[in-house]
């Protein structure tokens, strides 16, 4: 395939290096973004190289771009991700061999630490995309206020060490400002990997068969993780108002998540089981397109999300969304033209739904507006990003960005020692599960207590984290001592 090279001063044989803490087989919004960046850069613009932590069972042979994986500990059962050790000689070798001209990290944690090392070692510009509200993720993972503050300060040091900051929305940029960032940023929205068209009626019928969806009853849709912070209580409380008002509807929730059981129980408590459908998680993109195409409205009353990509996915099928006014997802939305804006409460959503259920043609017209004005393909999004890469490279060569603080070697060494200790603890825990069944629950609790330490230590300088590990060590010593004196001696020496 002939490579398309835009007028950015970049030669086609140069390589863009993409880094992130997650990548398939781990699936989330950011790993999907990196996958699309890599695929489209490789096919349409230049070469791409992905650097990411090793995941058990990963197979990168299907990709037409290079993937380098660096050492990690499998902590998916604890935190949903692997914990990568942010130093990789193989990654450094590939950066040199593949003529990398720019580093683009999509995570301000371990991947950013590795990117900073590579940028310093090879004299390369470094871009960071701020995808999500990491301060909320840290608060959920770490309960200690002191450690939260330390983690955020270290995260900011990573951000400030990059040459250019991109955010997926203006709201994401304001979130970054809220934790202390004072520099400039560029809004570089993500794209949608769905084509701009509805699927066939045959596929819709096949996917929705078996569900009670009368043709003359409005269908509302939510696709995503079933977590309360996505605004699900607002949806259910609004639907209860519709039910009590005698308005016919069906609500379809597609997805799973940590709050799924509670969401289902609350649905039953409200007496909405007949009108509300839970399909479970669906990974098949064509089946998701069928649901987007079948729905009359997409409901997304979330103020947590920084991008609201599902709103643009719905727009790909000419389905309008109901969104909180002022939320990140509402950027670019004009009420009644390409979407519907409400206040952040169930009363406002209920009033809007009652109004629209009586105006089916209006829902269709605004859905068409959403498709025409909100939809952006990944090809278009990455083309914008690639054009900007050229400006970043030119600015870097001209000295516009200045010099950033280097990473201290002693910090990297301490990280390596800690990763080895955590690996030993992890291995010991597995052995204890096999051989000492009566202590399984206690050991798992101990390992879970280390979870927050592992997360924070990946993004802090290590000083606060050392004190935390010392405190944790005293509390769990009796429970892990059975794993062997050698394990405890390693931990004690580190402290």
Written description of the protein model:
- The protein is α/β, with parallel strands linked by helices.
- It folds into 3 domains: 15-191 and 380-397, Glycogen Phosphorylase B (Rossmann fold, 3-Layer(aba) Sandwich), CATH 3.40.50; 201-375, Rossmann fold (3-Layer(aba) Sandwich), CATH 3.40.50.2000; 409-494, no CATH class.
- The protein has helices at 29-44, 76-79, 89-97, 110-122, 134-141, 145-160, 170-178, 201-208, 232-244, 260-269, 285-294, 309-316, 346-357, 360-373, 378-397, 409-435, 440-457, 463-480, 485-494, and strands at 15-19, 47-53, 66-70, 72-73, 83-84, 100-105, 126-130, 164-167, 186-187, 219-223, 250-254, 276-280, 297-300, 321-324, 340-342.
- Helix 7 (170-178) links the parallel strand 8 (164-167) and strand 9.
- It is elongated.
- 44% of the residues are buried.
């Amino acid at each position: 395939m002939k490579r398309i090279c835009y007028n950015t001063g970049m030669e086609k044989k140069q390589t863009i290096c993409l880094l992130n803490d997650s990548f398939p087989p781990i699936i989330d919004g950011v790993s999907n973004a990196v996958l699309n960046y890599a695929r489209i850069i490789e096919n349409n613009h230049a070469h791409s190289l992905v650097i990411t932590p090793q995941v058990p069972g990963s197979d990168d042979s299907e990709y037409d771009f290079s993937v380098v994986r660096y050492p990690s500990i499998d902590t998916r059962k604890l935190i949903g991700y692997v914990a990568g050790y942010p130093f990789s000689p193989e990654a450094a070798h590939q950066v040199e061999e593949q003529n990398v001209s720019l580093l683009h990290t999509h995570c301000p944690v371990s991947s950013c630490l590795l990117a900073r090392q590579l940028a310093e070692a090879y004299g390369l510009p470094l871009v960071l995309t701020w995808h999500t509200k990491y301060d909320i993720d840290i608060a959920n993972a770490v309960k200690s206020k002191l450690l939260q503050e330390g983690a955020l300060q270290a995260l900011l040091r990573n951000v400030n060490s990059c040459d250019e900051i991109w955010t997926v929305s203006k709201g994401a940029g304001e979130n970054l400002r809220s934790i202390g960032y004072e520099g400039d940023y560029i809004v570089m929205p993500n794209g949608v990997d769905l084509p701009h068209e509805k699927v066939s009626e045959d596929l819709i019928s096949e996917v929705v068969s078996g569900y009670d969806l009368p043709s003359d009853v409005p269908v509302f849709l939510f696709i995503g993780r079933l977590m309360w912070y996505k605004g699900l209580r607002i949806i259910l409380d609004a639907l209860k108002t519709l039910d009590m008002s005698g308005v016919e509807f069906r609500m379809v929730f597609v997805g799973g998540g940590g709050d799924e059981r509670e969401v289902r129980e609350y649905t039953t408590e409200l007496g909405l089981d007949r009108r509300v459908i839970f399909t479970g998680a669906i990974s098949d993109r064509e089946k998701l397109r069928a649901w987007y195409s079948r729905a009359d409205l997409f409901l997304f009353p979330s103020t947590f999300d920084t991008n609201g990509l599902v709103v643009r996915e719905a727009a790909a099928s000419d389905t309008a969304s109901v969104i909180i006014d002022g939320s990140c997802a509402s950027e670019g939305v004009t009420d009644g033209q390409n979407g519907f804006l409400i206040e952040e409460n169930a009363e406002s959503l209920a009033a809007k739904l009652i109004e629209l259920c009586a105006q089916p043609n209006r829902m269709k017209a605004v859905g068409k507006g959403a498709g025409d004005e909100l939809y952006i393909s990944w090809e278009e999004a990455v083309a914008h990003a690639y054009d900007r890469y050229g400006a970043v490279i030119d600015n870097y060569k001209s000295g516009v960005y200045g010099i950033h603080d280097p990473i201290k070697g002693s910090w990297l060494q301490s990280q390596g020692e800690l990763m080895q200790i955590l690996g030993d603890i992890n291995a010991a825990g597995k052995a204890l599960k096999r051989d000492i069944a009566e202590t399984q629950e206690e050991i798992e609790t101990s390992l879970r207590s280390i979870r927050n330490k592992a997360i924070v230590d990946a993004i802090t300088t290590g000083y606060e984290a050392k004190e935390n590990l010392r405190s944790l060590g005293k509390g769990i010593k009796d429970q892990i001592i059975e794993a062997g004196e050698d394990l405890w001696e390693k931990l004690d020496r580190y402290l």
